[in-house]
Amino acid sequence: MWAVRAAMKPAGFSLLKQRLLSGGIWAFTGRLLTSLGQLAINALLARLLAPQDLGAYFLAFSVVTLGAIAGSLGLNQAAVRFVAESMGLDQPGRARRAVTTAVAVGGTGALGVGLLYLPLGYYLSANFFRAPALAAVTGLVAGWMAIMALQSLLAEVFRGFHDIRLATLFGGLLTAIAFTGSLGLLWWIEGRTTLAVVLILAIGSGATSALIAGWVLRRKVAALPRERAEGGVGLGQMLRVAGPLLVTNLTLFTLTQADLWILGAFRSQEEVAVYGAAARLVVLVAVPIFVVNAVLPPMIAEMHARAGSANSSTPFAPQRRWRRSPPYWRFRPSCWRGDLSSGWSTAITTVKGRRCWRC
Phi, psi (5° rounding) for residue 348? Predict the structure, then answer.
């Protein structure tokens, strides 16, 4: 705690406030527009697709999101940590190595999960969800899965650079704008369409966002110097961080989507369409927590890295900070004298590595 406070000097605190304000505005505005875009997409899909196809679309979107989480291998959030802490420690070469490792391995994972879904998708759609319309577009769902995984990874890398503006834009806003515009144009021209056409438009919107994000990120990384031989971010180090994040993300997403999957397995696609459209209406409620998750992670990673650097640069700094900390001086006389003036009936205090009971 004291190391973090020491790292937050007036100039650093001013920069922190600036990042919180700017990042919060961009994240809130972007998330609000993305949520409104998703509502507009649902309204257009309800007019473009038959009820059975709309239910199959909601199931496809849920499966694609799950596959995108698995395909990213947790590297999207790991990249935020390593890039943010590397830039905070003034090690741009280390940040460059973290970006290249995350994109290379994450891109391979995205391609792998798409290929894995090809043989499993038809069986899952035909036997578990009993949705022939979903089984007929297995290849498109696999491609959409790979695109979404890569798109999420690229957006989180920008977040690691504290570029909340680009992270918000490439994290879903640009895709929502392109998808909404293409669906609106299709509705104005045709009036009705098929599930395959809708998925092709979704893939095209996501691929456009991913291509632009990759081009911008390539220019940004090219300006960074190459790392030195020591102190780099290795693949094993990154995977050790990404593994628990992957398990957590998959677990949480499964818990939140289990209701839709159960409904899809036991009820008709028309009922899935109604339930999926109703569930999408609550996205605006979650905007504040999305804003917090968009802005704080890179700041926390950078401050943690700076505090760790301060600890390691001063011998025996943790011991001295413990001796100066208020809890140490508050508890030490009470334990030695057996003072009960604090009003605690029972307390356990650690002094110099020993437990002291006070009753």
Answer: -120, 125
Residues 235/243, Cβ–Cβ less than 8 Å: no
Residues 6+ away with beta carbon under 8 Å from 148: 64, 65, 67, 68, 206
Per the structure, the complete domain to which residue 254 belongs is given by 2-313
Q: What is the pLDDT of residues 332-349, one digit of tens each?
A: 333 333 333 333 333 333
358 alpha-carbon distance from chain centroid: 46
How many domains, in total, are found in the chain? 2
Please state, in angstroms and rounded to a whole number, the distance separating the CA atoms of residues 161 and 324.
Answer: 35
- Higher pLDDT pick, 65 / 162: 65
Residues 95 and 159 in one domain: yes
Instruction: State whether 305 and 338 are in the same domain.
Output: no
Say if 243 falls within a structural domain.
Answer: yes
- What is the spatial distance between Cα 251 and Cα 71, in angstroms, rounded to a whole number? 14
Q: Please name which of 205, 167, 194, 165 lies closest in space to residue 64, comparing C-alpha atoms.
A: 205
Q: Specify the pTM.
A: 0.76
Are residue 354 and residue 247 in the same domain, yes or no?
no
Average pLDDT, the chain: 77
